[in-house]
Amino acid sequence: MGGPRKALWLVMPLLLFLLLTFVAPIASFLGKSVANPEVVTILPTTVKTLNKWEPGTPVSEDMYRALLMIWPGRGPSRPWGR
């Protein structure tokens, strides 16, 4: 008989198939869900102010103002509620 080594060679194509069809796409989706370069291009001012922020401290007024700039027609000239 071939023993465990032969059994491993017989199971290897199945393991390779499972790796290519299930594990690789899931890992790719997880990587794409975490890496989001669009945020840096859409919210450059917000990203710059958040880089200065220390976790555990309150969010500053500048950070709120930078986030508010993404809505069209809003900002310091037209504040919310007016």
Describe this structure in a few short sentences:
It comes from Advenella kashmirensis (strain DSM 17095 / LMG 22695 / WT001). This is Binding-protein-dependent transport systems inner membrane component. This protein has 82 residues and is mainly alpha-helical.
Q: Flag low-confidence runs.
A: none
Proportion of β residues?
Answer: under 5%
Mean pLDDT: 81
Task: Please describe the biggest sheet, giving its number of strands, its sense, and whether it closes into a barrel.
Answer: none
Helices and strands, in order, run as HHHH
Derived from helix and strand composition plus strand pairing, the structural class reads: mainly alpha
Rounded to an integer, what's the Rg over CA atoms?
Answer: 25 Å
Number of helical stretches of at least 4 residues: 4
Helix content: 55-70%
Q: Would you count the extended β strands for me? A: 0
Number of domains: 2
Distance between the termini: 84 Å
* Shape, principal axes of CA atoms: rod-shaped
Distinctive features:
82 residues, 4 helices, rod-shaped, Binding-protein-dependent transport systems inner membrane component
Written overview of the protein:
This protein is mainly alpha-helical and 82 residues long. It folds into 2 domains: 35 residues; 47 residues, no CATH class. Helix content is 65%, strand content 0%. It contains 4 helices and no strands. Helix 3 packs antiparallel against helix 4. The protein is rod-shaped.
